[in-house]
Amino acid sequence: MIKLHDLYFKPFVSEQEIDTIIERMVNEVLADLQDEVPVFVGILNGSFMFVSDFVKKYPKPCEVTFIKLASYEGVKSTEDIQRLIGLTQDLTGRTVVILEDIIDTGNTLGEVHRIFRNENVKELKIATLFHKPEAYKKDFKLHYVGMDIPNKFIVGYGLDYNGLGRDLPAVYQLKTTQHMTNIVLFGPPGAGKGTQAEFLKEKYNLIHISTGDVFRFNIKNETALGMLAKSYMDKGELVPDQVTIDMLSAEVEKNADAKGFIFDGFPRTNAQADALANLLDGKDSQINAMIALEVDDEILVQRLIGRGKTSGRPDDADENIIRNRIKEYYNKTAILKDYYSAQGKYFGVDGVGSIEEITQRISDVINKL
Ligand code: AMP
To answer: Is-contact 54 99, C-beta < 8 A?
Structure first.
């Protein structure tokens, strides 16, 4: 992912793919023109990389020139095309191939046709690396199209966003959802995830999703999901993955405009972590960090027994169930440390101390993301 000015862009077409596309376009042009010596006319600024790579691959003699037109302001195509540098040579009787980086509304192409109207060229052909069929409003024929793309703003390989991005060797697409901060708050039962999440969600304007809380809400309201989950929760076991994943996805979808999430109690298995990655990927986003509260087992047991006296949670009332939950954590959940460590996203935080001290330790991690 890259950031240009205020916007984020994600990889869209790789250098290798661009190379293959140009190779194909060169062959198509060559098959049509055969021994004719064409004049390739690039439309500046955007097409400079495309023209350069195209003519390097063109195996027969050719001429190259440029005209300079300007149409873009920001990320929207404007109607108004300025002619900054026109044709500087006589092209009477020549076969001209326009090389464009991208054709979207077709306004620039309208200007190109106006420029060539009185030039008496033998033939005018249009080749474009990218074409946005949904945006195209004209009916000029496009003779060679590298790739049809959706009507989303792209940068790189000559194309810019307010001046930046032209130098990138690959093409990137504007992210539809902008940057989110997504944190997995991790740690054994009783580590203080829920308490910390309450402070952090205010501080960073994030949505807190606790799968345990959602299950308890469903149990209280006697929903089908609640009844199913209760049988597992009462024993301190994990609710089956698919049930939990579906529920979590629904909670995320309810908050489509969120600036990010604190996931508390999720993921607890590798399958859940994979599902979460897919879900966020669909939003052009990802988990930024797993922040793990580290607390000794015996302290956990004492904390949970204490909490059970006031919380009314049946799974906090019995020391054996508490120990089983901690065991489940080490058997099934602790492997997620490896999952996120492998991505360089694991941050351990000492979970013993005052609430404020621990919030500060977690904030130190978030502030550096
Ligand atoms: P918690 O409030 O996070 O301690 O969760 C309480 C109980 O809810 C757990 O012991 C599980 O039975 C169930 N639960 C919560 N989150 C999950 C999850 N991600 N996967 C499976 N079960 C869960």
So the answer is: yes
Pocket lining: 218 vs ligand 1, CB cutoff 6 Å = no
Query: Phi, psi (5° rounding) for residue 91?
Result: -115, 20
Quote the CA–CA distance of 118 and 268 in Å, as a whole number. 70
Q: Name residues whose C-beta falls within 8 Å of residue 321's C-beta, 6 or more positions apart in sequence.
A: 234, 235, 236, 314, 315
pTM: 0.64
Strand partners, 154: 173
User: Cβ neighbours of residue 232 under 8 Å, at least 6 residues apart?
Assistant: 238, 239, 240
Cα separation of 196 and 192, whole Å? 6
Cβ 233 under 6 angstroms from ligand 1: yes
Ligand 1 centroid distance, CA of 217 (Å): 12
pLDDT tens for 46-56 read 999 999 999 99
Residue 334: name the closest of 279, 297, 281 by CA: 297
What ligand 1 atom has the least distance to the C-alpha of 216?
A: 8
Rounded CA separation 279/123 (Å): 50
Locus of tokens 């580590």: 191
Residue from 239, 252, 339 whose mutation best tests the ligand 1 pocket (most atoms within 8 A of CB): 239
Query: For ligand 1, atom 11, which residue shows the shortest CA distance?
Result: 238
SS3 state of residue 369? coil
pLDDT at 23 over 60: yes
Distance between Cα 238 and ligand 1 center (Å): 6
206 three-class SS: coil
135 Cβ neighbours under 8 A, 6+ residues apart? 77, 104, 105, 151
Summarised one tens digit per residue, pLDDT across range 339-356 is 999 999 999 999 999 999
| Cβ neighbours around 367 below 10 Å, total | 8
Other Cβ atoms closer than 10 A to 279: 15
Sheet hosting strand 181-186, strand order edge to edge: 207-210, 260-264, 181-186, 289-294, 346-350
Find out whether the beta carbon of 236 lies less than 6 Å from any atom of ligand 1: yes
Q: Which amino acid is located at 41 in the chain? A: V
